[in-house]
Write a structure and sequence with these properties.
alpha+beta, four-stranded antiparallel β-sheet, 35 strands
Length: 1443
């Protein structure tokens, strides 16, 4: 093979040549990338304080680190105590919240099981980051691997190692060495040696690329000279025979290597050369008998970091199935740290990876380790004392299982999941940058070596399970590149440079995404950045230049890709999608020169594009982000919006633009013609420093209609409002509509505006013009707002002489204009004097106003001859007084005039000042708008502290004087007032109320709780006489409501009340009171007499209609009488019941006796129906034979007229049959239901259990391996399987009824041990003894035996002729154990037990003389399920039987 370095055909050589440049480029980049990574490291170190945001947990140092022997002697139990003193700092979950089960261990191969542990996915950020990774096939190497397998029987590739050379191991023991140009340099070994040693299972190249170590599937190790291709060493005794080499790794010391075999042991190999003889010494670092290591990773430092203080320790990380260890090989062997994984999937692959990162102003190694879906990061430092200190960084939670972890640089990692998808992750933000599918690689897995198939498969099942997904030897990284070994190919992956990422998007025609990505590079927010160096300004400049190129390309593309010229809407949509992007990025890059020159010129070629461009500028101008627009663009902008009739937009734009470069007159004319008053004022102010002209133009429009007394149009109202705001801004020193006037112009502008307002005449005045036209116009337009503007201005004025003069002068003008003219409303005049009163009330007031003017205003507002605008004039005067104007008036005169004008609010204001609260009550009562508020006022005076006793007494006395008026106004409010404040004077109030109707309303509000009065009736202590007085008034004024009121009323005496009701002949009320007294028969006799009289009325009346009101009275009286009997029958004996019901029955049947069958009465059918109703009601309380006997003994029916009552008797028998059928059907259904429930319970108890796995869920060991005789296998109904010893160690037992039960460890942990269900704790064991058989089967047997005692006969009715027959069945008695079992069954079914229902029915049917209504033999109510108010049963009607 060595003599045939290249056997490729022409096509293969061409393939190799096409990718040779790519590989050369990648390898030549290696040095620069390597160098860059350290430049980047320094740069990252420089800015680390801004970048590091990880939450760190300091792992405390131990005083005496463990020895290697102590580690070796540890049991591999994940719950053993580790070196770390405070395990809570590790933030490791003690509960397996992601556990899942497989059908068997053998089936848990390399399939993706992420769907069983689904978490929140990381956001898909491809659109943000573009394509981060570039992957390509190394065609030359791939072709030669296939060729070697075909031509020299090299076998399929098994392992790869990459340095400045690429080494590929094969299944038949050959090692193929390729250079950077993919040329085959060496073929080491032979197939004959391969037949002896087996496949190459591991490769390692040393730092200077001079030596290659090969590990074989049968355990041998060879060392080769890569310069000469000679075999230097063949090592066969470095580790126990019969185990495959899983890993072999050179350390930074070329004489030191580490190997890991399939027995889980780790050995240190020391290479020596003594007297020309090459030797190898082996030392065991970790024994597989105490815990199997399946991954090792020595810390390699680059040449730049060879003097790093940590390198002297020669650190080695090892991962076993339960923990990781970090040990130092030099100067002496020492364990620096152990760390447990926590709970994980036993089939997941342990992974380790070192990388130097910058943190805390220093560069230190960081170890990433993971198993499953959580990646932990440990930062390793050497402190001043020489000890190693470890801090835990923020860990990374994923939603997939990892099979490989590779560092690309200190911030970017590449992960490979079990579904063969690559995930590029930014470590610090934990953001997923890209996902790449690499299933096409057909990755080589190392499963056969982990199972050690070449030596007979003598490995543990746990290690073999991990080996299903192991691909340690198929992936190798070097110089920022990752190499993936497939069955027929080799692929290389690397991070794209920033330019390449942008260009990649451009090639895909994703220009918008390319610009967004470039902008993220510009702002320093991009992830996995490669190729940008220098300081921030330099990086920004480089990216900005590239963005400008893209923008030019984008603009050209926007114009070229423009759709059909004829479709304007489609063209507009196209440019609306494209042009804003150009504007955005030009402004972001602060390249207005580019935007308004080249970009604008290009877009102006297309009129649609030009319009869209101009519209895009609007939001930036309105937000003041775009200033300094060129005059040409500004002009085009205004013309464009004007052409599109968007004048409101034009106005908004003008007030945000510097319009000094435009034609001012033309702009002003455009604004005026289009009613853009804000823009017009802005142009005058900013363009010409002219502040008076805009006011003159606006006054000319609004003054003529106001002076003529016409109503203003909407447009003129808008102008007037703008004018007021403009004057306010000018006098306050603010620019209109936004901003501020330059400070040097503020005094000048104020003076100009004031002088303008107080001009005697306007510029072009007509002879008829009145004086002070501008002030007059503003007062007419909106007096209140104009005076508010002046008030704000007076606040801002400084106390200089000129300001005081201006204030006094304008006040005089206001008085002259308004007081001397009659064309102002009272409201407008009031506003002026309110304004003056506020100004005069200020402590630093300098204004002077003649008091006689205030008297004139008072006369004007209180003029009694003017009834119009009464409330308006009152409100104006009130505001004037409240603003401080009261000092301007004589109070007695003011009160007199207010009373005369009926200004009751003014009177209240004055009386309150003088504390004459009693007079205020008169004000409320006289004011029709506020009379109902008098109650709240009186209540507040009497209850709120601060008022004297005399004041309260005077108020109460006034209220008492007006009590009839108050009661007639609102009885309930008056009653509440009396009850709240003067409950002891209720009788006095009653005596004052002479009107009986008012007294009735007052007492009803006071005593009847339904009236809604909020007073505690118990605290009132009202005497019974008052209550009875109310009842008597109630009988007079509302007799129909007496019974309803008595039901809620309290405190009356029965005897006196009965006398009152008898006086007014209210028989129903008397009967109600007699019943309440306990005289049931007395009440019944009254109701019966009333019923009989009603019956007589309809018996003797002539022909009437069917809707006769007297018939309705009979029906109502009958229903009331039946209800009376039903209410009281429960508490009476049989004889007393008959004394009630039989007279009622006879009274109902008496009218039917009088009418003969030949000439039936008009209402006979109705009377029969009522009689049937009486019979049905009394059947619940009177025995059926007694009823029949009483009817048959009646002399009317003694002469064979049974047909008259046939319908009544048959109706009663139908009811009886229906209830009997209902009872039998219900019993049958309950029996079937109980039988079904018990069958299901028995089936579930006797059902076998199917474990979901064949290993213990605690120790993860196969249950077959534990051969202790006393140990038992415990299987739970949830499917988890355990050794009994493991459960005992976890204390998974619970005491129930004095017996110890097992509980499932996983299920009880998942529910925080707080929701243990008894069902889930029932177990079955592999070997079970009779004494241990405690389960629901016992419950079933106990209940079964109990049921045998309960006799239930479905149809056992007594014969009709022998009602006194008794069943000889004894009532079943349950022992305590059976009762307990019965209760457990009830709890199991959550509700009324079926057995309880059946027992109730059985007792009813087994009792003496069965009757559907057994009220005659029993008391009011025995404890029955059916009488429970919550008992509900949905029933169907009885079947219809055919004759």
């Amino acid at each position: 093979m060595e003599n045939e370095p290249d056997h490729e055909n022409v096509e293969q050589s061409l393939c190799a040549k096409t990718t040779e440049e790519e590989l050369n480029k990648s390898f030549s980049l290696e040095a620069s990338l390597s160098k860059f990574s350290y430049i980047d490291l320094d740069k990252e170190l420089e800015f680390k304080n801004d970048l590091i945001d990880d939450k760190e947990f300091d792992i405390p140092q131990v005083d005496t680190p463990p020895t290697l022997e102590s580690i070796l002697n540890e049991t591999d139990d994940e719950d053993e105590s580790f070196v770390l003193e405070d395990p809570t700092l590790l933030n490791i979950d003690t509960i397996d919240s992601h556990s899942y089960d497989t059908s068997s261990v053998a089936s848990s191969d390399s399939g993706d099981r992420t769907n069983l542990k689904r978490k929140k996915r990381l956001p898909d950020s491809f659109s943000l980051h573009g394509s981060v990774m570039r992957h390509s096939l190394l065609k030359g190497i791939s072709a030669q691997i296939v060729s070697a397998a075909d031509k020299v029987d090299a076998g399929l590739p098994t392992a790869i190692a990459v340095s400045s050379l690429i080494a590929v191991g094969t299944a038949h023991g050959l090692a193929l060495i390729f250079d950077q140009n993919q040329a085959l340099r060496l073929c080491l070994g032979s197939t004959s040696v391969g037949g002896q040693y087996g496949a190459i299972s591991a490769l390692s190249i040393n730092n200077d690329c001079s030596r290659l170590l090969c590990g074989f599937a049968k355990g041998q190790i060879t060392m080769w000279d890569l310069a000469s291709g000679k075999l230097l060493r063949s090592i066969t005794d470095a580790h126990p025979p019969g185990t495959a080499i899983l890993h072999i790794k050179f350390t930074d010391d070329p004489t030191l290597a580490i190997c890991n075999d399939s027995g889980g042991s780790v050995f240190e190999l020391t290479f020596k050369r003594v007297m020309g003889v090459r030797t190898c010494e082996s030392r065991c670092l970790f024994s597989g008998s105490k815990g199997e290591v399946c991954c090792i990773e020595p810390l390699h430092s680059k040449p730049d970091l060879k003097d790093h203080p940590i390198t002297q320790f020669s650190l080695l990380a090892m991962a076993s199935l339960t923990k990781i260890l970090v040990i130092g090989l030099k100067p002496s062997l020492k364990v620096w740290m152990t760390f447990p994984y926590g709970r994980m999937d036993p089939s997941s692959v342990p992974l380790l990876a070192w990388h130097f990162v910058a943190a805390h102003n220093s560069v230190n190694p960081m170890l990433a380790f993971c198993r499953g879906d959580v990646v932990h990061f440990l930062l390793v430092k050497r402190d001043e004392s020489g000890a190693i200190h470890v801090t835990k960084q923020k860990h990374l939670h994923l939603y997939y299982d990892l099979i490989n972890f590779t560092w690309m640089n200190s911030r970017t990692v590449v992960l490979l999941d079990s579904a063969e998808k690559l995930h590029v992750i930014d470590r610090q933000t934990q953001e997923e940058l890209e996902t790449v599918e690499i299933s096409e690689v057909q990755l080589v897995y190392n499963s056969s070596h982990f199972k050690s198939l070449a030596t007979g498969g003598n490995v543990s099942q746990a290690l073999a399970l991990v080996g299903e997904k192991a691909c340690y030897q198929s992936i190798s990284s070097y110089g920022g590149q990752i190499f993936y070994l497939g069955t027929k190919s080799v692929y290389v992956m690397m991070l794209r440079s920033w330019r390449e990422r942008v260009d990649h998007l451009l090639k895909q025609d994703c220009l918008t995404e390319a610009l967004a990505l470039a902008w993220s590079f510009h702002e320093g927010k991009a992830k996995a950045v490669v190729g940008l160096s220098g300081d921030a300004s330099k990086r920004k400049a480089v990216v900005a230049d590239r963005m400008v190129e893209i923008l030019f390309h984008y603009t050209d593309r926007a114009l070229k890709k423009c759709p059909d010229q004829g479709k304007i809407q489609v063209m507009e949509q196209h440019f609306q999608d494209m042009v804003p992007v150009i504007v955005d990025y030009c402004l972001l890059l602060q390249r207005k020169d580019l935007l308004f020159s080249q970009m604008y010129d290009k877009l102006s070629e297309n009129s649609v594009a030009k319009g869209v461009f101009l519209e895009c500028l609007e939001p930036y101008i309105l937000s003041d982000k775009l200033v300094g627009i060129t005059p040409q663009v500004m002009k085009d902008l205004l013309v464009h919006f004007q052409d599109k009739k968007l004048m409101e937009n034009v106005e908004a734009l003008i007030v945000h633009m510097d319009i000094t470069s435009l034609d001012i007159q033309q702009v002003v004319l455009m604004c005026w013609e289009n009613h853009l008053y804000d823009a017009m004022i802005y142009v005058y102010n900013r363009g010409m420093n002219e502040f008076i002209s805009p006011m003159e133009k606006l006054f000319k429009v609004i003054a003529p209609p106001l002076n003529a007394g016409k109503t203003l149009t909407d447009e003129q109202v808008v102008m007037g409002n703008k004018l007021l705001v403009y004057i306010s801004c000018c006098l306050a020193g603010r620019a209109y509509p936004l901003g501020d006037i330059p400070e040097d112009l503020v005094p000048l502008v104020k003076n100009q505006v004031f002088e303008f307002l107080i001009r005697l005449h306007s510029a072009e005045a007509s002879p008829e013009e009145e004086i002070y036209p501008y002030v007059r116009t503003l007062l007419h337009f909106d007096t209140r707002e104009f005076l508010n503007v002046l008030a704000l201005t007076f606040e801002d004025f400084k106390n200089d002489k000129q300001a005081v003069e201006y204030q006094q002068r304008i006040v005089d003008i206001l008085l002259k204009v308004m007081v001397e003219n009659s064309d102002f409303t009272p409201s407008q005049v009031g506003c002026l004097f309110t304004f003056l009163a506020r100004q005069l009330a200020k402590p630093d007031n300098t204004l002077f106003v003649n008091r006689t003017l205030f008297d004139q205003v008072l006369e004007f507002l209180c003029s009694p001859d003017d009834d119009s605008r009464h409330s308006e004039r009152q409100q104006v005067l009130l505001e004037l007084l409240q603003a401080g104007g009261i000092v301007q008036f004589e109070e007695s005169r003011l009160i007199h005039m207010a009373e005369k004008a009926e200004f009751y609010q003014i009177c209240e204001f004055m009386y309150e000042r003088e504390h004459q609260y009693d007079k205020i009550i008169d004000c409320y009562l006289r004011d029709p708008l506020r009379e109902e508020e008098v109650f709240n006022y009186i209540h507040n005076i009497l209850s709120i502290p601060g008022h004297s006793a005399e004041e309260k007494q005077s108020v109460w006395q006034k209220a008492m004087d007006h009590i009839e008026e108050l009661v007639s106004l609102k009885p309930c409010k008056a009653a509440e007032l009396v009850a709240t404040h003067f409950s002891e004077q209720i009788e006095t109030v009653i005596n004052k109320l002479e009107n009986q109707l008012l007294l009735f309303k007052f007492l009803r509000s006071l005593l009847d709780p339904r009236e809604g009065i909020h007073v505690n009736q118990e605290l009132l202590q009202i005497s019974p006489c008052i209550t009875e007085q109310f009842i008597e008034l109630l009988c007079q004024f509302s007799p129909t409501q007496v019974i309803e009121t008595l039901q809620v009323l309290e405190g009356y005496r029965l005897e006196e009340t009965i006398q009152i009701t008898q006086k007014y002949q209210l028989h129903e009320v008397t009967a109600y009171l007699l019943e309440k007294k306990g005289d049931v028969h007395g009440a019944f006799s009254i109701m019966l007499k009333r019923l009989q009289s009603k019956l007589q009325e309809i018996t003797h009346q002539g022909e009437t209609t069917r809707e006769d009101p007297s018939l309705k009275d009979v029906e109502e009286t009958t229903v009331e009488t039946i209800a009376l009997c039903q209410r009281n029958s429960h508490n009476l004996n049989q004889q007393q019941r008959e004394a009630l019901w039989f007279p009622l029955l006879e009274a109902m049947m008496a009218p039917q006796k009088l009418s003969s069958s030949a000439t039936p009465h008009l209402h006979s059918e109705a009377l029969k129906s009522l009689t049937m109703q009486v019979l049905n009601s009394m059947a619940a309380f009177i025995a059926l034979p007694s009823i029949l006997q009483r009817i048959l003994q009646d002399p009317v029916y003694g002469k064979g007229k049974l047909g008259e009552i046939q319908g009544l008797i048959l109706g009663m028998l139908d009811t009886f049959n229906y209830e009997q059928t209902l009872l039998e059907t219900t019993t049958s259904l309950l029996n079937q239901d109980l039988h079904w429930s018990l069958c299901n319970l028995r089936a579930s108890i006797t059902k076998g259990l199917n474990p979901k796995q064949d290993y213990c869920s605690i120790c993860l060991q196969q249950y077959k391996r534990r051969q202790e005789t006393a140990d038992e296998i415990i299987v739970f109904s949830c499917g988890h399987l355990y050794h009994s010893f493991c459960l005992q160690n976890k204390e998974c037992t619970i005491e129930i009824e004095g017996q110890t039960r097992w509980t499932c460890y996983k299920c009880s942990s998942s529910y925080k041990a707080g929701k243990l269900s008894e069902n889930s704790s029932e177990v079955k064991k592999g070997r079970i003894t009779p004494s241990q058989m405690v389960s629901n089967i016992e419950l079933l047997l106990i209940i079964s035996s109990s049921l045998k005692l309960v006799k239930m006969s479905p149809s056992c009715h007594p014969s009709k002729g022998d009602p006194a027959v008794k069943k000889a069945t004894s009532e079943p008695v349950l022992d305590p154990q059976q009762i307990q079992a019965f209760d457990r069954l009830c709890r199991l079914y959550r509700g009324s037990s079926r057995l309880a229902l059946l027992t109730e029915l059985s007792q009813s049917r087994g009792s003496e003389s069965y009757r559907p209504f057994s009220g005659s033999q029993s008391g009011p109510a025995s404890h029955s399920i059916f009488q429970n108010e919550n008992f509900q049963l949905q029933l169907i009607p009885p079947p219809v039987t055919e004759d």
